[in-house]
Amino acid sequence: MLNKSSKRSKWSVKGTKLSAVTPYAEVNAVLDYFKTRLEALLADRLLGIYVIGSFALGDFNLQKSDIDFIVLIGGEVNDDLYTSLQALHADFTASELLWAKCVEAVYISPDAFDLTVPNSKLYPQLEAEFDGVMFRAPLEPGWVYQCQSLREHPLIVIGAHPRTMIQPIERTQMFPPAAAITGMWLDQAQNDPAWIPWLRPIKNHKFVVMTLCRMLYSMATGDVTSKAKAAKWAQANLPQRWHDLIDLTLANTVEGEISQSLIDETLAFIRYTFDRSQLQ
């Protein structure tokens, strides 16, 4: 990820009226970049652009955070449109613009907001860890958390309020995604030789522990929050057993790898979260 604090913005914003979606002119310029081009590409099929992630949940970090957004499109994304979206993001990723490789996005149709039926459709998506290369995939197991974030903590670039499209989400709906994610991690830890080495780097370990805190928060409250706020909640509300693990995770801010004892404790925390997910 780019060290955004040490790189000057390449955006030329002087004399340009930017959307005041966030407090950061450079970030608003990124959102305007996509808004302008998607309006030209999609016309009236563009139904909305919504910022999610740390921005929407109030914990954006100028040095570390990505820009995450959801684009709502009327109708299906055919092969021609998918190719155009790929080209749009490839141009942005290849540029020297600030956040060029730190954008994450998913392009959905309104049916993605129906959480009452299984959905195995493939939607265009980008993740920063894949260098901004677009791919088609089902929605992530934690999609209900994104829907709750959109419904209750919207940050709207354009489009209708998500509450007009997303039905109220019950606390019990937070449990199955937590079970799916933690169950997958437990299976990988046991059966995938590459997973424990993937967990060892501090960056990946922090992601896992903070995600567990967020899932536990959602199962307890029915709402969603940022990683930082979820960790504070966990320190105040979870059994003492997990406090040292969370404290050490928060304190690890340098590059490197974690110890085997910390791996063992993290696997126990995954199991604890999985067990909680069975108690809805």
Structure description:
The chain is α+β, with helices and mostly antiparallel strands and 280 residues long. It has a six-stranded mixed beta sheet with strand order 5-4-3-2-1-6, sandwiched between helices. 44% of the residues lie in helices and 11% in strands. It has two domains: 4-164, Beta Polymerase, domain 2, CATH 3.30.460; 171-277. The model is unreliable at 1-18 (pLDDT under 50). It has nine helices and six strands.
Radius of gyration: 19 Å
Number of helices: 9
Mean pLDDT score: 88
Overall structural class, as computed from helix and strand content, comes to alpha+beta
The proportion of residues in beta strands is 5-15%
Number of domains: 2
- The rough form would be described as globular
Helices and strands, in order, run as: HEEHEEEHEHHHHHH
Q: Based on the structure given, which CATH architecture of the largest domain is correct? A: 2-Layer Sandwich
Question: How many DSSP E strands?
Answer: 6
**Could you name the CATH topology of the largest domain?**
Beta Polymerase, domain 2
CATH class descriptor name of the largest domain: Alpha Beta
User: Quaternary status of these chains?
Assistant: single chain
Distance between the termini: 37 Å
